[in-house]
Every structure is written in C-alpha cells, then in structure tokens.
Design goal:
The complex is a heterodimer of chains A (408) and B (557). With 408 residues, chain A is mainly α. Chain A has 24 helices and no strands. By secondary structure, chain B is mainly beta. A six-stranded mixed β-sheet of chain B has the order 5-4-3-2-35-34. A four-stranded antiparallel β-sheet of chain B has the order 1-30-29-28, with no helix packed on it. The radius of gyration of chain B is 22 Å and the shape is globular. The chains are: A mainly alpha (408), B mainly beta (557).
C-alpha cells in the first residue's frame, strides 16, 4: 500500500465524486466543482469551492474530507487535520468516508489512524478482500502486527492469491512467528516466482530461519534473475557465507557496492570477513577508499579502510595508524577504532600508548573480550602484573559468559 | 531495502563460518601415492552422537620387533554404551612391516587387541630395555603394554598404577599422551592429555540445523586435568600431577607437544585445548612446572579468540634452533603457527606465513612437522576432516582430503592437496596420523586413520632426488629413546635442527629415527647432539642417504 499511497491520494477526489450527491443542494455544485478542481490539482479553486460548500452544508463529511485533502496538498496540515476531524464527526459510519480518511491519514504519516480507519472500512459488509489487504498493509506499516495478521488472514480467505500469501507471511514475520511465515512466503514465491519481492522476501526468510542451503539455492537463482537488485545480491552473499562459500560472499558484497555504493551493509560485511577476501582484497580496499572519499566526515569508511589495509600482506603501519587516528577524530566514541589502534601500537611495543587506546576501547564497550586480553598482554610488558591479571580474569569471565550461555 | 538488509546483517552476525579454496603449484615437489591397509576405524557411531564417537583414531608408527622396519598400530573404538570391545571390529590392530611394503596383521600374537574405547597411542621404551612399549589411552580407561621383546606385549597397567579414576573428576577421557623425561633421570615419564568430563548417562542432546542430532560443543562438558606420571624405574609410576603443578590447570586437552622451548635443558609441554586457552607448561626442573602460555603469547591466537585446538606438533620450522608450535583447528579458525622468538616467548605468524588464508577453509586433526621433500625445510602434513555429523548437506565440508603444507623456506607455506596426490582417495573424516620411512627409500611416509573408513598409507614418492639422513639415537645415561635430545645438522648449504620426540599430531606417535632432508648435500659436515643428560656429542662428515645409529657416549645411567 505504501508505494501506491501518493497515487492513491490523487484519486481521492474521484473516489469522493459519487458521494457529492448527498450534500445539500446549494452545496452540491460547489462540492462537485471543488472535487474537479482538486482532481486537476487546482488547489486554489478547490479550496474556494469546498470552503463555500462547507459553509452551506457544514455537516457534510464528504465536503470536509475533500477539504482536508485540499489543505494537505496545499501544505496546511493543521487545517487539514481539523477538517478531517469534522469529516470523522459527520461520516464516521460511512464506508467511503472511512476509506477516504484512511488514505488521508496515510498521507499525513499518521499510520496508526490510517490503519484504524481502513480496518473500519474493511469490516463493513461488501468491503472485499482488497480492503482487508489494505487494512493489513497499513496495520503492518503502523507497527500493529496482530491486527496485520488478522486482516491479512481475512484477505487470504477472500482470495487465495500469491499476494495474499505474501501479505500473510509478512504479517506473521512482524508478529514474531517466523515458522508460520515461512510456508506463506514459500507459497507466494512458488506461485509467482517471477515476482522480485516475493523471491527476495522468501530468500531472506530462509536465511532468518537458518535454512541456508535452500536460501542459497533460491538466492543464487534469484541473483541471476534479478542481477541489478542489490537486496537480492546482498542476501545471496550472506547465504554464500553461511554455506561456506566466502569467496562468493566477497564477490557478492563487492557487486552490491557496484550496484549501489550508498548502501552501507556490504562494506560492513566485508569488514568482518576480510580474511576471506584473498586476491580480491585490493578491490575491497579500493571500495573503502572510494567510500571514504565520498563521505570524508564519516568515520566508518576511514576505519574500515584502515582495517582492510591492515589485512594486506604488506601492511604499512604508518598509513594504517594515520587512518585509525583520523577515524577516532571523526568519532571518538567508536570502540573498534581504539581497539585496532591499541593493537597496532602494541605490535610496535608502544606499551603506554597501546594501553591508553585499549582502555578507552574497553571504556566504550566493556563487554568485548579482545581488548581485555590485549590489554593484559600490554600490562604484562609494562611490568604491571596485577593489572594484567585483572584484565585477563575479566577476559575469561566475559568469554565464559559468552560461550556458556544457551542450551544444546 | 533497509529492513531486509538489517535482517541480512543479523543473519551474518551469527555466522562467520567456513570456506573453500585451494592453492599450489602445478608440479608438486611433494607427492604421495595411496596404499591400502586392511583397517577400518570403528568409532561406534550412533544416532545419539556421543562425543567420543568423533574423537577416535590414534596411530603409531614404531619398530615393535626391532627388525629395522617401522610397523603400524591403530587404536580403535568400542561399543559406546559399554566402552567394551564387544566385537572383533573394535580391535586395535598391529601390522608388522616386512620392509618390502607388505604389512601383516600380528595383533593377536602381540596381544594388543585391547579392551576399551581406545583413542591415543604413545610409544616409548619406559624401562630402557631396548624394546618400545606402548601406552594406549581412551575413554575411562588407559592401558600400558610392556614389550616383551619376542613380538608380544603384556598389559602392565595395574602394576604401573597409571589408570586410577580421578578422586575429584571420576573416570577420565584420554585423547593423547607423550613420553618425556621431565626430570632428566634417564627414565621416561608419562604425560597424559585428558579431554573433558563425559558420561553417557548425562550427556546433553545437541541438534544441528534441521533438527538432526549432532556432536555437542565442548562448552557443554566440564574441564578435566591432565596428568603426569613419574617413572619410578621399577615398572611403577607415581602420579605427580598435583605436586608438579599440572593438575592446577584443568582444561579440555586435545594434544600435547614436547620440546625444550627455552633451551634450558628441561623438556616443556604444550597442550592444546578445545575452545579454551592453550597451556604451555614450562619445566622449571625438579619435576615442577609453571603454566606460561599467556606470558609466552601461545594461549590464544593474536585475535584472542577461543578456537577448537586439536592436534599439535612442537618443532623448529624455521631452522633457528628454537622449537616452534603448529596446531590445527576447525574451519574458519586457521591452523595457528607460533614462532619461537628465542627470547622466551612466541609470535603468532599464522597470517604472515601464509597459513592463515590457506587453512581458513580447512578443518584439521593431526599436524606433523617433517621434511617431506628433503629440501632441508620441515613441512606440515595435516589430516583433515570435521567433527560434525555427516549430514548430506554438509558432506562436502565434513569429509575433507588431507593436505601437506610445503615450507617454502623460513616459515612461508604453500598448500598441496590434489597436487600432492592426496585427492586420490575420497575425502574422509581423517583423524590420527603417524610418520616414518616405511619402505626405506629415504622419504617420509604417512599413515592416517579415518572414522568409518579404511585407513590410508600415503607413500612418499616425491621427485627431486634430494639427499637425507636419519639418526637413530640410543641413550645410555639419558633415556634409551633419547627423547629430548637436541640435534643440529650442518651441511654445506644449511644448518637445521630437530629434537627427539615421538609425540606428533593428534592422539598419535611416530617413533622412527629423526629425519633430516639434506637437499643437494650428500653428507652432513657435522651432527651435534645435546643429550638430555647434558652430554654433547659431535660427529663430523656424516654421509647421508642412510640411517646412522648413534649411542650416547659416557658411562651408563
């Protein structure tokens, strides 16, 4: 529903035209002319006619909802909301007004109210499966998963379509019922495999469910079918990694960067699997460098660039240190930059400086294990065995807690 | 897009798993050919996936009958519920080598069929009578077999006193052992590596993806201590685990390597642990040890992650005279290499040696450091295979071929698998391995076990025609096996080092002569031996391409 909302709002006027009849006769002409003007986006005249109609027939919900729409399009949101309030007052039980109000509130971004009105509309006899689907879609967007499930299931009862299964699947996902979601998304995909969004959502659901082998099969085909869809290629990369094909994962993430260099995730993913980059490490480094150039004030590309340089076979410590320090200048609160810098300084036997950076890293993220361990080593070399012991004990405590949680 | 990508991030965050790629030259300087041997390792795999089922498979190569040819011993499993060898299929096996490539099963005559769920094999002449004895460790039961010198062995476990249940931890699960003279009294002592506390009645049920039963992560089991038994010299041993300082460090031991890492004359012990810090027991002399892994930089890899430490070997790989440490782990964990700096600690050179990227997709069990192409640089043979259950979907990753990592000089490695002929057999869940020149051609061969599959002999037919030298040491004041003796070989082109230790890899023992590749040199200008007794012996102009037997000079013990 979301992607069609703007277009839908444009036809609100047409939606309301059949309702122009019930207005008081003197207001009827103004209402009609107002709706025609609104439809032509002639907002000045639409407002003139509709305000006059409202004066002539102040209890006409149709007039008020059309006026609300006009105000909204004119950028006068407060007046629009006020007009919508009047429409609610006089037309709350009218299905077309309910539907129009849903569209209006969706346009204002008040998705909860939009969903609520669409559900009232969908509950009226004869509203049909599409109304239920719209109610479900708006409820999903409004963050009301249980309502979404209820109306998506109603939509499915009204018509066994791939779209309905997809909607039910998405609603189940939102409601935290992945086991129920997966078969619905599977049905949608199997019945309409050429639908990009069905493939994408099914592949992602398989990943979330841990069905990596099937996810890989679906997404491998999908990325050939939709090679320009960064979402599918990205998910394919994740599936490759899950199925122990890290070289393909690296290729996929690099491809996502090529398709859409503004998406952050593939850069972050690559940063976590640099050891698998192998012969493609220079491309990874180049992609970080390009990102860094595009976003010079963003600490993340600077940090990742440094990390990738450090993973190369002949790392230049000076360049890496410069990059890490710049990353810290841009964002001193990012613990990983301090950790990497601390480890680099430690490898250069610059113990006090290393201790400072590692301590700062721990301060920013006390739950990480690696900095505690490295700091223990540094303290030992600084001749501070008690501090070293304490850091190592903390490392072991955290590590044990990290690994001993959970059951078989 | 954003929401789905966030989902993908969440999925990736719980992954960080494995991979697959391979490298190597077209013409391999190291090459093996497969030779079968009629032994199948039966670990009694059950649908319940009890932990010991995936840990079996020790191998020993030693000359049990002193005929000059290296024989082969395989440890075997048992019924997992009773821990008894209830069927002949669980029998341990001893194969006698006729020196011509023929192996004859002599298990029954030798009396080595065993009784329990056996895993580890450790060879050592504990009574210095000139006949190699055999320690066999396993699940809740260890055995010491005395070699009678007539082709038979006697079970002397009870007399030796090495198989008492632990008063605090109960019955122990042994996966490795090393014979080593820790106090330089000329008698081999026994270090026993224990894995974790296991009881079939209380073992948790662990599930793999898809709901099938799988082997549990070690975090679901408790730590147990390793043990040290001091040889009294009368066929009995004294448990000095506590007083030596060993017992104070319980872990989940998987392998032990022995070497004098700081060249102070006392043999030290490195122990890999499964998903815990490793141990480096520094021998302070007088039978006392201190655990110094952290201080020495060998407790963990440089990224401070707990990994699945498996088998280990502890030898000099860069010919600087200081023993280095190589151990293996599972896929995505690499096969770490710790280079001995010669200053009392180690540096993690896994990445700079090339081993990091080469081993990342591999799961290993048993590494052995030996010079397989006789070029003067020790290579690393790794038996590969995963611990996981063999689900169809994972088959390609659980079963793996073996790989030899060729030392390119210094400590840079190239991985050779198919190039080295090691893809000639199907990938398996390989486990233990032992090394020795089985056919006397001067090239080191490898014997490998595999769970539920025929054992493999990999006969070394590497090209190149490099020369070699094998030294068979006999201690007189020192222990007769000369375990702990440090050897320096100087040739026209190189200087190299090794030491006598039969403890190689996972659960296994290689008790042949110490092997040196001489490269183009037909002889060694000098051979220097530093015996555990402190005696230093030097031989000049030692001709190569032969086994040289060297007896420790001086008065006997």
């Amino acid at each position: 529903m979301k992607c069609h909302r703007t277009a839908v709002l444009a036809v609100v006027a047409w939606l309301l035209l059949p309702l122009a009849g019930p207005a008081q006769p003197p207001a009827q002409d103004d209402l009609r002319q107002g709706l025609v003007a609104l439809n032509k986006n002639d907002l000045v005249h639409a407002r003139e006619f509709l305000e006059r109609a409202a004066k002539l027939d102040p209890r006409s919900a149709v007039v008020w909802v059309a006026l609300a729409q006009t105000y909204l399009k004119s950028g006068q949101k407060d007046m629009a909301v006020q007009a919508a309030g009047s429409a609610e007052q006089f037309g709350a039980n009218s299905p077309p007004i309910q539907h129009a109000l849903a569209l209006f509130y969706a346009g204002t971004g008040d998705l909860a109210r939009a969903a609520e009105w669409e559900r009232r509309f969908a509950a009226t006899p004869g509203a049909g499966a599409q109304a239920a689907a719209d109610a479900a879609g708006l409820s999903l967007e409004a963050g009301q998963p249980e309502e979404a499930v209820k109306w998506a299931e109603a939509a499915l009862r009204g018509g066994d379509t791939p779209e309905a299964h997809h909607l039910v699947g998405k609603a189940y996902q939102a409601a935290g019922r992945p086991d129920s979601a997966l078969p619905e998304l599977r049905r949608a995909f199997e019945r309409a495999p050429a639908q990009e969004v069905f493939l994408s959502d099914f592949g992602q659901a398989l990943l979330d469910h841990g069905d990596f082998a099937e996810a890989l099969a679906v997404l491998e085909k999908g990325q050939r079918q939709f090679p320009k869809n960064p979402q599918i290629v990205l998910a394919y990369g994740v599936a490759c990694y899950a199925e122990r094909r890290p070289a393909d994962a690296v290729s996929a993430f690099l491809e996502v960067i090529r398709l859409d260099p503004t998406v952050e995730q593939p850069y972050v993913f690559l940063g976590r699997i640099l050891e698998h980059a192998g012969g493609r490490l220079p491309e990874v480094i180049a992609s970080y460098a390009a990102w860094e150039k595009r976003a010079p004030e963003n600490y993340l590309p600077v940090f990742l660039h440094a990390k990738a340089l450090a993973a190369s076979s002949n790392p230049d410590d000076h360049v890496i240190e410069t990059e890490l320090r710049r990353s810290i200048e841009l964002n001193g609160a990012f613990w990983e930059s301090h950790l990497e810098l601390g480890e680099l300084l430690s490898s250069q036997s610059k113990w006090p400086e290393a201790a400072r950076e590692l301590s700062r890293s721990i301060e920013l993220n006390p739950g990480q294990t690696r900095a505690h361990y490295e700091l223990a080593r540094v303290y030992l070399r600084m001749g501070k065995p008690d501090l070293a012991r304490a850091e190592r004990a903390e490392y072991e405590r955290l590590k044990t807690a990290e690994t001993d949680t959970g059951r078989p | 897009m954003r929401a789905a990508i966030t989902g993908a991030v969440a999925v990736l965050a719980v992954l960080l798993g494995p991979a697959l790629w391979q490298a190597g030259p077209a013409q391999s300087p190291i090459h093996f050919v497969y030779r079968p041997i009629p032994f199948t390792l039966d670990a009694c795999e059950t649908p319940e996936r009890h932990a010991p089922e995936t840990m079996a498979g020790g191998v020993a190569v030693f000359d049990y009958n002193n005929d000059g040819y290296l024989d082969i011993f395989f440890a075997n499993g048992a019924d997992i519920h009773t821990l008894k060898k209830t069927s002949p299929k669980y029998s341990n096996r001893l194969f006698a080598n006729d020196g011509k490539g023929h192996f004859t099963d002599v298990t029954e005559k030798a009396g080595l069929a065993g009784e329990g769920y056996d895993i580890a094999a450790a060879v050592g002449d504990y009574d210095n009578d000139g006949h190699e004895d055999l320690f066999v460790g396993g699940v809740h039961g260890n055995r010491l077999y005395h070699n009678n010198g007539d082709g038979t062995f006697t079970d002397v476990t009870k007399k030796a006193g090495i198989d008492q249940p632990d008063s605090e931890y109960g019955p122990l699960w042994t996966v490795g052992a090393a014979w080593v003279d820790v106090n330089n009294d000329g008698l081999l002592d026994l270090f026993v590596v224990n894995y974790m506390s296991w009881d079939i009645r209380t073992e948790p049920a662990c599930l793999a993806a898809g709901g099938a039963r799988d082997y549990c992560d070690p975090k679901f089991y408790k730590k147990t201590p390793n043990q040290l038994f001091l040889n009294n010299g009368d066929g009995t041993f004294r448990d000095v685990s506590a007083e030596s300082g060993i017992r104070a460090h319980p872990g989940k031991g998987m392998g032990a390597g022995v070497a004098d890492f700081d060249l102070d004359g006392w043999m030290d012990i490195f122990v890999t642990n499964d998903k815990l810090d490793n141990f480096l027991f520094h021998n302070k002399g007088g039978g006392k040890f201190e655990e110094v892994a952290f201080e020495s930089n060998v407790a963990l890899r440089e990224d401070a992650e707990w990994i699945s430490g498996m088998g280990v070997d502890f030898r000099d790989i860069d010919n600087d005279g200081y023993p280095d440490i190589v151990f293996v782990a599972l896929d995505d964990e690499t096969f770490p290499i710790f280079r001995n700096t010669g200053k009392g600690d180690f540096a993690d050179i896994t990445r700079s040696s090339g081993m990091g990227v080469l081993s990342l997709p591999m799961a290993g069990y048993s590494p052995t450091i030996c010079d397989f192409d006789n070029d003067g640089w020790k290579d690393i043979f790794v038996t590969r295979g995963h611990v996981e259950v063999m689900l169809p979907v994972r088959q390609g990753q659980v079963e793996q071929p073996n790989t030899v990592f060729r030392n390119l000089g210094g400590a840079r490695f190239a991985a050779l698998t198919a190039e080295a002929g090691l893809a000639a057999q199907p990938p398996r869940r390989h486990r233990g391995s032992a090394v020795g020149d089985l056919n006397g051609d001067g090239r080191l061969d490898v014997v490998v076990s595999a769970i539920g599959a025929p054992a493999e002999i990999w006969m070394n037919d590497s090209p190149g025609g490099n020369h070699w030298l094998e030294l068979q040491l006999e201690g007189t004041k020192s222990n007769r096996d000369a375990i702990g003796a440090r050897i320096k070989v100087v040739t026209h082109t190189a200087t190299q080092y090794n030491h006598v230790s039969f403890s190689f890899g996972y659960a296994s023992s290689s008790a042949g002569p110490v092997h040196f590749g001489l490269g183009p040199d037909k002889s060694a200008d000098s051979v220097e031996i530093r015996w555990p007794s402190g005696v230093v012996q030097e031989l000049k102009n030692v001709a190569g391409d032969r086994i040289v037997r060297i007896k420790e000079p001086g008065p006997p013990r």
